[in-house]
Design goal:
It is a single chain. The protein has 491 residues and is mainly alpha-helical. The longest helix has 57 residues. The chain has 19 helices and 3 strands. A 3-stranded antiparallel beta sheet has the order 2-1-3. Helix 12 runs antiparallel to helix 19 and helix 18 runs antiparallel to helix 19.
């Protein structure tokens, strides 16, 4: 009897430890993703029109040309607005060491055209220069690269708008952002903006020079503000826009985090039981000459295969994962096929569609409401979205616009564009209120997306628990069934 009861005790303790994993920890785990928004070059003709408009209207960008900033420019190596028309020189990375107002030593990296520009910039920032040298090839610094996070960008835009409304010159407002930034990537981005503004660049041009930092949409909207002279309003609108995008993205992450982690837990439990628990009972079954049923033989075979070929399994999984990522990033037909398949998954596909439609219509409405031409708006939208299905629809709408046809024609009958959104698009075109209608569509699908995510989150927990219990139950059944054969022989 002791031989029979001992395995049950081992099983009880092993299963208790596995199933005692607190689900509340899983629910709280979430990661932030960064929005994959591309940059594009602005047309030369529009840049010229902006410069002309600024010269005629004397808008807010003249902050950087007032008397105070002229004095700063004189200290900054004699830089004047004439340098705007000069070709853009390649920037060189410099490693600097400075002392702040508290005589604390600070080191960092800054990109500029030459060493004098670096020294001039650091001096205007109130630092006492110790050393400035060209950055060595082996001088590797972690952080400081990549796009600004959506949440941080929204907060920065809100602050910038507030400073400008308070009468602070643009260059000084950006300088405040650079000094208060703790994140290295944000600090370096704002420092580069200050550097370019002091050199006489417009804010949009300064942002455009950092193609990997600021979203394409933001650059275009700031350029529109430079034409209308209403920068604070557009900054506030962009802050609201990126805040909404961040909330939508967090909802997506929240919906996917729990099932992914539970799935990984289930795989870990399966590997543990096949490689550790099952082999112990196999030895006991062999010593007792027990008759093994088909389910037990299947589990034992899986255990032996996993132990003998785990290196090849890891290698194949690594190659498959790497190949999949490469194809997804570089082969558009493959990427489109995967995205199409995901969008056809019941329930989960609607989450993707609602999110894409909400983002598309919200961005479209923002562009139209701020006076951006429809053709330019569609071009910007084609660069912003990362979904190949919607890129194709937008490309077709651009072709229709070139032929003098309505935008709605490209969206008619598209499975990825719900009928409600299409009808609102048609109504907006017919009434001349396209921007207003797109804003209403965005609000409607954001509400649907949020509701669907909450429903899935409430259903996913019991479903994943059932899956985990099934996996553990099958393995335990394969172990328990032979026990009855051993117990019968003892009797």
């Amino acid at each position: 009897m002791e031989i029979v009861m001992k395995p049950f005790i081992l099983i009880y303790h092993a299963v208790s430890k596995i199933l005692s994993f607190p689900t509340t920890i899983i629910k709280k785990s979430s990661k932030e993703l960064e929005e994959n928004i591309e940059q594009k070059k602005l047309k030369k003709s529009k840049e010229e029109s902006i410069v002309i408009s600024q010269a005629d209207n004397g808008d807010f960008t003249n902050h950087i040309d007032n008397e105070d900033n002229k004095a700063q420019n004189d200290n900054f190596g004699g830089i004047t607005s004439e340098r705007r028309n000069k070709p853009i020189k390649p920037l060189i990375s410099y490693r600097y060491t400075v002392l702040n107002s508290n005589k604390k030593k600070i080191t960092g990296v800054f990109e500029a055209e030459n060493e004098n520009d670096v020294k001039g910039f650091l001096t205007t920032e109130g630092y006492e220069i110790v050393t400035v040298n060209v950055k060595k090839p082996y001088d590797i610094e972690l952080g400081g690269n990549g796009k600004l996070k959506t949440g941080a960008l929204a907060f920065g835009l809100t602050q910038l708008s507030t400073y400008i409304k308070a009468g602070i010159p643009l260059v000084d407002a950006v300088r405040i952002l650079s000094k208060q930034s703790v994140n290295l990537n944000e600090k370096r981005a704002y420092q580069r903006l200050v550097y370019d503004l002091l050199k006489g660049e417009n804010l949009s041009e300064a942002m455009m020079r950092q193609e990997n930092k600021f979203p394409k949409l933001l650059v275009n909207m700031v350029k529109t503000a430079e034409m209308t002279g209403d920068l604070p309003t557009i900054l506030d609108d962009m802050a609201d826009y990126y805040t909404a995008m961040e909330e939508t993205r967090k909802q997506m992450i929240s919906a996917m985090t729990y099932p992914v982690i539970v799935l990984l837990l289930a795989i870990a439990v399966l590997i543990f039981m096949l490689t550790y628990l099952v082999p112990q009972f196999v030895q006991m079954f062999e010593s007792q000459d027990a008759t093994l049923p088909a389910i037990t033989l299947l589990i034992i075979g899986a255990s032996n295969f996993l132990k003998e070929n785990y290196v090849w399994i890891i290698l194949v999984l690594g190659i498959f994962t790497g190949g999949f990522i490469y194809l997804y990033k570089n082969i558009k037909p493959f990427k489109k096929g995967i995205q199409t398949a995901l969008m056809h998954i019941p329930v989960f596909g609607n989450i993707i569609i609602y999110s894409e439609v909400a983002n598309f219509t919200k961005t479209f409405s923002s562009l139209l409401n701020h006076g951006v031409f429809i053709t330019d708006s569609m071009e910007i939208l084609s660069k912003i979205t990362n979904n190949e299905v919607y890129k194709k629809i937008i490309a077709r709408s651009l072709d229709n616009l070139g032929k003098g046809e309505a935008i709605s024609k490209a969206f008619k009958g598209e499975w990825a564009f719900p009928v409600v959104a299409y009808e609102m698009l048609v109504t907006g075109e017919n009434t001349g209120q396209l921007g207003v209608m797109m804003e209403k569509v965005a609000s409607h699908f954001q509400s649907l997306h949020k509701s669907l995510v909450n429903q899935i989150k409430s259903l996913i927990e019991p479903i994943m628990i059932i899956i985990l219990a099934f996996i553990v139950g099958v393995i335990l059944l394969s172990i328990v069934v032979p026990m009855f054969d051993i117990y019968g022989k003892i009797q």
